Structure formats: structure tokens, C-alpha cells
Amino acid sequence: MTEGLAQVEDIYQDRGRRAKQLKAEGKKIVGYLCCFAPVEIITAAGLVPFRIVGNVEESSASADAFIEPIACSFTRSCFAVAMKNGYDFLDGYVVPHTCDNIVKLYDIWKRNVNPPYSHFINIPHTLSPASFEFFQAELVTFKKSLERFIGREITGERLGQSIQLHNENRALVRDLNELRKQEPPLLSGTEMLKVMVAIVSIPVEEANKLLRNVIKEVKGRRHGPPKKPARLLVYGTVEDNAAFIELVEESGANVVIDDLSFGTRTYWHDVELTDNPLIGIATRYLAKIPCPRTYKQRTGTHQQDLENRFGYLGDFVRDFNVNGVIIYVLRYCDTHAFDVPDVKEYLKGRGIPVLDIEDEYSTSSFARLKTRVQAFLEMIG
Amino acid sequence: MEAAKGKTTAEKSTEMSKRVRMMVKGMAQKAHEARAKGQPVAYLFIGSYYDEILRAMDIVPVGTENFAGLCAAKMDAERFLDKAESEGYPRHLCTYATCGIGFDAMRRELGTQPPNAPDGGMAMPTVMLGSGMMICDPRYKWYQAAQRYNDVPVHVHGFLWPPVDANLKEVQGYYVKYIRDELQGLVEFLEKQLGKKMDWDRLSEVLDLSERTLKVWNDAYQLRKAVPAPMPTEDALNTMVPGFFMLGTQEALDFYQELYKEISYRVDHKIGVIPNEKYRLLWGAGLPPWFSLIIFNYFESLGAVFPIETAYPPLPIVEVPRELHPLDRLALRAFKQCTYRYEKAQKHSGSPDVEWLLELIQDYKIDGVVCHRASTCRTLHVGQIHLLNVLKQYTDIPTLILESDIVDMRSYSEADTHAKIDAFIETVDAYKREKAS
């Protein structure tokens, strides 16, 4: 039995293995898209949440007969994996309303992959009091739907326990990120991303044990990855494969922090334990995840607006001693693309060099990207 | 650009549709005049369910998508798309948005309206009113981006409707309340920004007017079931303007009453769009390529006419008690309109859009379905393949997907489009013959 980073590598290489074992033992596995799915409720139902990813190394051409090439290539890839029976072990499918691409995918997947259980969770784009009230009601509907699926009530006690488990999970991820603050970091960006993918592929209790082992192992290292001239933050959309981060690190950088859907965006904020657990969950998912799909009303000048929306990136830059940022956005992710000029202005205003990359969800462009990344690193260097 | 060589707009059949161009010019002029007088002007999105609120508060609307479509039809979008791209907004983003952002960026840079902008350009807004809708991410991101160039307040009101597999009885209460509360938030924002209170009685009257307008508009389009087709889709792409940009005005109601009369006359006298109507097609999904509406005339040259379309349709008539508070009335109406075919879909195909197509195919005696995939819009253009896949489970009617964009004509090829249309018409012809035999 492997432990720590070796176990991470095992899971990363065969993400579905543990889920299939659990299914064989009678557990039900619920796949979900995106970091907006409230996994606490799924865990509280006694189900195993399993984050759906694509396959960056395979063509999504098999999706062409079902979903247009103008859709985000990540969602197309996820669907292509499913159509090749890659998610046959899933008993359920949960889709949060994140963006147009995911909204569209819900029915296409439901009809063609035909999972035994499926549910769409509507999430407002705005942060008004009415939006919080609505989202709480929507979470009640989701909870009832899961209760019908499992045939029993999800108690407040179970929800509270689940929130604690997932908060512990997030705290451990933050602890692990602390080890990236050192110079050089004790953990590479490539390793970190593999940890991120591994822990959303197994039950949260097992993920927490794995994280504790990884932290212990990394803390015990005499040497982490070699020191490179650049300490980078990678900002962007979905990065569920280590290939791009590996490319950046091989080009002469330490990726020391991120703002990605599979990274800090999912882990930086806990669910507050409230008398009604759904209030805490609603608040965390609606207000705390810094994804451009959630609209933040401007409250002051343009510069104040940038600080309000992207100040957390400034904190990362300061706390992790970052000296360059790569913006990595998948084509047809409209919400991110609209934000890119503002993100660049904010970072450049703080004197941080920025490389802006728009790409397909595919490794086919990596040779070209490597040249651009190298040129950027030379500029920082 | 092949299309740039010749005419881009389609020849219209109805006199009413020909009046719309002047109405669009009039709207732009009113907005500029309002701006000059210091009256409130708002950027707004089509079909965001707040039109009556603006009318009741004497806010002059500027339809930003409409302006982009106008730029495309006038072959004058390129400079704005280029400008937006130079500002960091890529070409694959919604080109309604990038055309608007490019225009705003250029106006900011020049300190005045860009020279020779269509209809004098968009009037500088007092506020920009986005919408956090169930679909269409640009509705809350576009004006956030535009705020870089227009230093005016933005308000985004949330607007969601449930997925088709929802239990409507379980969710209706909190969905309607959400729509209502968000509209209330919009009213409070406008009251604060404009320094005036909403007159609820007036809003009620505006709602009465808009509901009468929707009824006449729907009734007029029902007449389009006639053979030969009295009014084609290219006309409807004009006649939708009063309904989407002037809803809640007497002018819009008068327009549709006149349109009803004209279509009635054409039906009674069997005046069709073309002399020898051989094929009746449905514009089944997608927004049109505004820079090349002349393709409708090309279809007609082959004996094919579009009696009806799903693009820019009148909102359906739903029952809502008139005595409700106007915001409750608006919210309930919006919810019912957005879930209009859910019950039917739940009992049959599972898709409200497929149910809609099946209704139109039967009622309007349709021989083929044409969709248009605009490359920059995921809202209405991702999901067309799926729509047709499900449709094909219920009918073997021929279908076609044309590809280009709403505003950006770079990827458009007239020759390729004509070749696709030619092949499709052959298929439709064979289908009709087989059905007849």
C-alpha cells in the first residue's frame, strides 16, 4: 500500500479505481462538475462525491455528434470521456449552474450518458440578499432530491459532520500550500496539482488521511524541487492535468500558488458552521469562490473595483513572494475572457509581469506554448 | 469578403416591416436627445423582463445588442470588433458584446461619438442594466467590462428559471419570489440613481399596455400559418423591434395592430411572399447573420419561404391576475413564460424546445428546419445539435445547420452557404415527394 505522494501518483494515474472499488462494495458514487457543487450535501447523504474531469491527451471528436465545437473544450472533453464509458461507475450526476457551457451540458449528458440520478443546482450570478435566500431554497431542493435518491433523510447532524470533514479537507490543502511559501518551495506545482486531482477522486475521509500523509512527507523533505529564477502564480480556468504546470516548471519556474478551479479556488474558504447548515453552505458557495461567473457590483472607482475583485491575487503575490503570473484561460470560457483585461491591469498595476495564454483543452499546443513561456521567464529572469 | 460586394439586407414583403428601420433611427435619436437634455438613458439587454419598469420611470433605452446588429447590417462592425480585440477582448467572445465594447472604447478614446457610426452611435448611458440570467453569461459580464469605458453605475438583476426536469410545484414559490425581489432591487437602484420614485399605478398601466401588445403580436403571428405564407422570417427580424425594444409603449401596440391588419389582408387575398411557394421552412434555432440577411431571398429564389421562426418570437401569453402588485405580476408572468412548455415536455420529449419545434412544424406546415450556428454565442448556439438529435426521435423532417456569426463576417462564405442551401433544398424536395407519395 503506497502512501503520501506515491499514493497521489497512483490515484492520479487511475482516478476511477477507488470509486470502482467502493461501488463494488455497495457505495454509490456521484459525479459532479465544477467547484460550485456543494459536496458537503453529497457526503452527508452517504454518497461519494467524485469530480468529473476531461482527458487533455485525447481528442474530443467523439463529442462532435452531440455538442458543438464552439462549446468550451473542457466540457466537451468531459462528455467525450463519458461517452467512451469512462464514467460508467457513476450512480449520479450533479451539475451546478456555473456558466452557459455547463448549463448546456446538463441535458446533453443526462440524455446521452443516462445516469441513474441527475440533478441541476441553480446558482445566482449576483450577491444580493435575495440571491442568498434563493440559493438556500435551491439547496433544500437538492437535499430533498438526494433524500429521494437514497431513500432516507439527511439529518442536520450528518450535514454538520460532513461540513467539518470538508472544512478539514480545505484546511489541510491550505496547510500544504503553506509549504510552497519557502524558497525554494518544498512542493512543486506539478505535485500540488496531482494532489488536487487525487483528493477529489476519493472519499473525503480518505482524502484527509492522504493529505496528512503528504504534508508529513513534504515537511520531512531535505530538498524540494530545485530553486528556479521565477516564482509564479497560475491564474485561470480548469487545470485538471499536470501537463501544463509541468511545462512551466520545466521551462525554469517554480509554480508556487494558483487561482484555478482545481486549486485554491476550491479550498481557500471554509463553510461556516451555522444552526441551519445550508445557510453556511449557501454563503460559502455563492460568495466565497472567486470565479468570474459571480458578479461583484462595483462600489467605488475602477481601481477600487479591481482591488475588490482581485485583491486576493495581490495577497497571493505578497504571501507567496510571486514575481510573475501566467493567465491560462481555455477558449470559449467567456466569463474568464471578459475578466482578463481587468486581471492584467490589476496585476500590472502592482508591477507584476503577466503572460496571457488562451488555449484549447489539449496538449497539442504545448510545443508552441513552451516557447512563449520560456520567453516570458527570460523576461522575468 | 464576398458579402461586402453587394446588398446584405433582405427584400421585405410587408409594409409594416419596412417601417421599422425608421423606428430604429427614431429610437437612437430619442436617446441622443434625452442625453442632451439630461434625461436618463440606459443600456439594456433584449428580453430581460425589465422593459416596463424602465418605461414607467421614463428611462430611455439603448438596446446594445440591437446596435451591434445594426453595425453588422451596415457592414460597419469591423472597426469596433478590432478595437475590442486590441483592448484584450477576443473575437470569439459574443460579438454583440465586443462590437459594443469596441464602440465604447473608441468613444472614450475620441471623447466623442466615433465618426459616421450607424444612427449616430449609441447615446452615452446614465446607467447600464445587465442581467444575471439562467443563460447568457455576457449579460452580466459585458457591462462590467464596458464600465472600463463608461464610468457610470451598472446594476445586474438576477433572473433564473428552473431546469425542465424540476418539479414546478416544488420550486415555483421561491423562483417567483427571487425574480420579484431582484426586480424590486432594480427599482430601488433606479430610484436611487435617478432620484425619483416608482409610480406603481403607472407601472400597472404600462403592464396592461405591454400585455395587450403581446396578445396582438401573438395573434398576428398566428395568421402566418396561412398558405401561402403572408410574412416571412426576414420581415419578422424587423417586426420584433417594437416588441423587444419598445414594449410598454402605445407605439408598439399600434404597430402590432397595424401589422395584424396587414397580415390579415394578405391572408384574405392570398398574397404570399413569393409567387410559387414550393417549400415552407422553419428558422428553428439561432440568431441570424445580420450582415447577410439576404440569404432569405436566396432561399426564396429556390421556392422556399420561412413562414415562422424561433428567433425573437413574441413572449407567450400566460394567465396572471391583473390585481397583483405589478412586480408580483411581472415575476409570475416571467416565470410562466420561461416554463411555458415544461409540463408538455415532461410528458413527451423532455425538451420544451423540441415541443415548440414540433408544434411549429405541424401548425405552420413545415417541410424543413434550418438552424444557424453563430460561432461567438454559446447561449443560443451550443445545444443545436442536441436539439436536432432529440427532434429526430419524433420526426424525419430534413434539417440544416448553417454556420457563421451574428456580427463577425470573417468566417462567412456566401458561396459555401449557397451550396449548403442548394443541397438542402434538394433534400427537402425529395422529402416532400416521398411524403406526398
How would you describe this structure to a colleague?
- The complex is a heterodimer of chains A (381) and B (437).
- Chain A has 381 residues and is of the alpha/beta class.
- Chain A contains 15 helices and 8 strands.
- In chain A, the strands form 2 sheets. Chain A has a 4-stranded parallel sheet, with helices on both faces. A 4-stranded parallel sheet of chain A has the order 6-5-7-8, sandwiched between helices.
- In chain A, helix 10 (243-250) links the parallel strand 5 (230-236) and strand 6.
- Chain B has 437 residues and is of the alpha/beta class.
- In chain B, 52% of the residues lie in helices and 11% in strands.
- Chain B has 17 helices and 8 strands.
- In chain B, strand 5 (279-285), helix 11 and strand 6 (304-309) form a beta-alpha-beta unit.
- The radius of gyration of chain B is 21 Å and the shape is globular.
- Residues 1-5 of chain B have low confidence and may be disordered.
- At the A-B interface, helix 5, helix 6 and helix 14 of A face strand 3, helix 6, strand 4, helix 7 and helix 15 of B.
